[in-house]
Amino acid sequence: MRFRNPPRLRSTALAAVAAMAMTAWIPAAASASAASGTAAATAGALQDGAPGDVVSSAPSAFHPLPGQPTGTKAWKIHYRSTTADGAPNTVSGTVIVPQDGRTGPRPLITYAVGTVGMGDSCAPSNNIPHGTAMEANLIQQLTLRGWAVVVTDYEGLGTPGVHTYTVGPSAGHAVLDAARAAQRLPQAGLSATGPVAIMGYSQGGQASSWAAELQGSYAPELQVKGTATGGVPADLLKVADFNNGSYGSGLIFMAAAGQDAAFPELKLDSYLNPAGKVLVGAMKENCVAIDAIAGSFKRISDLTTRNPLAQPDWQARLNQSRLGRTAPAAPVYQYHALADELIPYAVGSRLRSEWCARGANVEFDTIWLGEHVSGVITQSPAVANWLADRFAGRPTRANC
User: Fold this and answer.
1) Helices 236-243 and 345-357 meet at what angle, rounded to 10?
2) 147-187 pLDDT tens trace
3) CB–CB of 299/249 below 8 Å?
């Protein structure tokens, strides 16, 4: 079921508050075409190759606004990655490289977007060429510094299957393998030994944090200089409890659908009442501007016959995505709004404490004024400056 909405719908203020990642709607035909075009690539990738190998590439474009020039070249790629349970999969994404005549190793940012929705039309690679991916304005701040950027679509977003929304290990793999793929794309001209940084906020904060934790074991060859991560939903059970019945409650049901996509044995459908089945089914086909509004101010009990989050198997899988058990190998800049109304500040603060206790190099920054969405915008200059210091080899200012 697809909710009715006009073409290229910009996210409303409520949708922005409800999910950080502001996106536009692209007609269903675009996602259907993308899905059909990637089926063969997916099958081929699963047979041979290694994580980060490029399965296919095609010229694309990078426009922060429709038609806005950026002095870059871009390619849509499909690359091999790994599911949460270690199986090979194929993920799509976009590689963006400034055309500024730079010589020598060019820094690369592997960028994890915030929540855009679950429908294939929501995938960043489907919006970036049209100037309808609102986070592209933040990405442009990076390309203007001469840095290349690769933006993952995550597992199941723009590729066959349901998006595994909020499944941390899957997202972390996708972020790291996007960096590998960008360096292996011949047209991009990036060095396999060039400096890399990881960046993301909200859902992207979870993904970038997971990438930071996994990098030392999963992608140790990447020359990661640091990770900038903000508004991190480090503990999904605490975040779900915080949002139950609020205007952010739609994210709970999106997350449940994402976990069920990764782990079908959870059998989400068996817990949903008729209204819950309709809502979750529609969420899988739409973008966040619609999903967040449709799911707002609902309690878990409104849409279920019993609460799946109270079940041991659900709790075990959600805890599999909890962050803080592994110290990132590279320095981290973590930031969180004190008044964050979607991801409790205490969740971010606890992640910082757990990383610090494990010996991580963490600089934590409290955003004293603002809330969830404004945090990524107002903090973006500080984030870019911190990354520039890491690329320049300057000392960190850890404050554990």
Assistant:
1) 170
2) 999 999 999 999 999 999 999 999 999 999 999 999 999 99
3) yes
